[in-house]
């Protein structure tokens, strides 16, 4: 039985998350997630995954086709004793194609094995220069 990785800070867990995505390493990616069955992930397509098995399968499908690089820039961070929330802007690099921007919220909790991801919500951002109401009309749910 392997010993879980210890993430001393939410930032350590976040770095490990993006490194795992860059390597298309599903096991390393899932090592960042809490082992709680109430974990939740929403991809930009609107696909909602609840529970570890569903989150694993959703990420397996995302990582399978091709390697991707994600450039993530943190907009805001909030951290308490047991919970942290990060809001980020992501740009995806799929080969030579650039996709985004995507707005992301990561929620982390601190437990016996350090900080772990419990929720990721990712959605497309409004196009620059477009009024917010028009961008909302273009979102498909």
Question: Your description of this structure?
Answer:
The protein is 28% helix and 39% strand. It is an alpha+beta fold. The chain has one domain (10-138): Nuclear Transport Factor 2, Chain: A (Roll), CATH 3.10.450.50. It is globular. Mean pLDDT is 85; it is low at 130-141.
Write the SSE topology.
Elements: H1 10-22, H2 26-32, E1 40-42, E2 48-50, H3 52-63, E3 69-79, E4 83-94, E5 97-111, E6 114-124, H4 132-138
Concise summary:
This protein is of the alpha+beta class and 141 residues long. Helix content is 28%, strand content 39%.
CATH class assignment? Alpha Beta
The count of domains is 1
Q: Estimate percent helicity.
A: 25-40%
- What class do helices, strands and sheet pairing give? alpha+beta
**Rg, Å, rounded:** 15 Å
Distance between the termini: 41 Å
Keyword list:
39% strand; alpha+beta; 141 residues; single chain; globular; Nuclear Transport Factor 2, Chain: A; six-stranded mixed β-sheet
